[in-house]
Amino acid sequence: MAPTILIAEGNETLRTDMEETFQKHGFETWAVENGLDALKATTSLKPDAIVIDLDLRKLGGLDLCRELRQSHHLWIPIILISRKIDEIDAVLGLELGADDYIVKPLRLKILVARVKSIIRRGNLCCYDTNENQGDRNGSSQKLLRNGDLTLDPTHFSVYKDNEEVIDFTRKEFELVYFLMKNKGKAFSRKHLLKVLSGNDSELDERIIDVFISRVRQKIEPHKRNPVYIKTVRNVGYMMKEMPVLTKGMQQSR
């Protein structure tokens, strides 16, 4: 069955070019010119992926992303496209649940490759390919623990001292999940950016510093002297391995 994609782009020429390119690569396409039509089409058609221009009329790209993720709870892969790299827009887009951020002018074959890659990942950031297929079919994964932190991959929840950290965004969760799965290992900003937005990201690696800062504000007992996420000079960041506290959450919640 052919994968389906919704293209939300205000420029008619570019919209047509994207449609034709995706069709040549085996996609079934739907195309709209404004954000409200994109919202209606997405909620009714449930495509495999969506390409959204940030500068849509009636409902902008970031607002559309927010509506899909927070109001309609749809986790269809989203690729945002923009005329320029804007660090604030990029961070907001990723925090709202976008899977990638691509800058115009578009290289359409590369866009298709990025979309295919994101669809393959299935937007399931927290399932390891080495784990058994049962995890993908809905069975609970093991809780991750480090110090007084507990992470629940099945429900996308983070707990500190048994209290849920309510305001974790999707991308913050992905970052903490990766670091906790690999605690004790240091990773470069480039590597962490790849974890959040896939290969060949055009985003500035310093965006990782923004995410790290926000995560630290939520999990660190002392903001100026972090004990969990450590800065590794000339490398990047790592999750320090901490002794698990006995009062931590039990596997069966």
UniProtKB/TrEMBL annotation:
Positions of the OmpR/PhoB-type domain: 141-241
GO terms under biological process: regulation of DNA-templated transcription
Broad class of where this protein is predominantly found: cytoplasm
InterPro entries: CheY-like_superfamily, OmpR/PhoB-type_DNA-bd, Sig_transdc_resp-reg_C-effctor, Sig_transdc_resp-reg_receiver, WalR-like, WH-like_DNA-bd_sf
SUPFAM superfamilies given in the database record: C-terminal effector domain of the bipartite response regulators, CheY-like
GO cellular component assignments: cytosol; protein-DNA complex
Protein name per UniProt: DNA-binding response regulator
Organism expressing this protein natively: Salipaludibacillus keqinensis
Lineage per the UniProt record: Bacteria, Bacillati, Bacillota, Bacilli, Bacillales
